[in-house]
Amino acid sequence: MESASPIIRPLCASDAAAYASLRLCAIDEAPETFLSTREEEEKRTIDEIEARICATANQVVFGAFAGETLVAVTGLRRYPLRPAQQKGFLWGLFVVHTHRRSGIARRLIATAVDQARAMGLTQIALNTGVENVSAIALYRSTGFEAVEDEPCEAAIDDDTDREVEMVLRLG
């Protein structure tokens, strides 16, 4: 790991290939935490990836860069329907192994929270697996609170997943 603190910034079109590569790495590491498979992700075009990561009025994807290398990401999306437009959703947090336990995830979350405030959001929600105790602990330490356990009705590979929804209320 480099000694300089990674730079966090919104991703742009020129980051699409790096994002795609990092996402495949994340899926390989923990496929059960993704809705899509590696095969589905590999089929995405660069245009689709650019549309997914480029900032809009309702979403931004932040990346942490160690030098020129993308080492962590997270996304923030505003709920699009009018009754819920004051709410956001944090998604896709992933840090490569060599940069874990360095504070990058916490910095990405703080950056997303600052962005949520700038967007006028009043709360941010997220979902994570109930078995992912380290993620739950991280989110709790940044102010998120568990609001419910959500059983997943659809079995994947003869296994039922359970998620916990967490919310951070912005004051």
From TrEMBL:
Membrane spanning segments where? none
Source superkingdom: Bacteria
InterPro entries noted in UniProt:
Acyl_CoA_acyltransferase, Bact_Acetyltransf, GNAT_dom
All copies of domain N-acetyltransferase, residue ranges:
6-171
Pfam families for this protein: Acetyltransf_1
Q: Which keywords are on file for this protein? A: Acyltransferase, Transferase
Annotated GO molecular function terms are: acyltransferase activity, transferring groups other than amino-acyl groups
Q: Does the keyword Acyltransferase apply?
A: yes
Checking PANTHER family in the record gives: AMINOALKYLPHOSPHONATE N-ACETYLTRANSFERASE-RELATED-RELATED
Q: What is this protein called?
A: N-acetyltransferase
**Species for this entry:** Paraburkholderia hospita
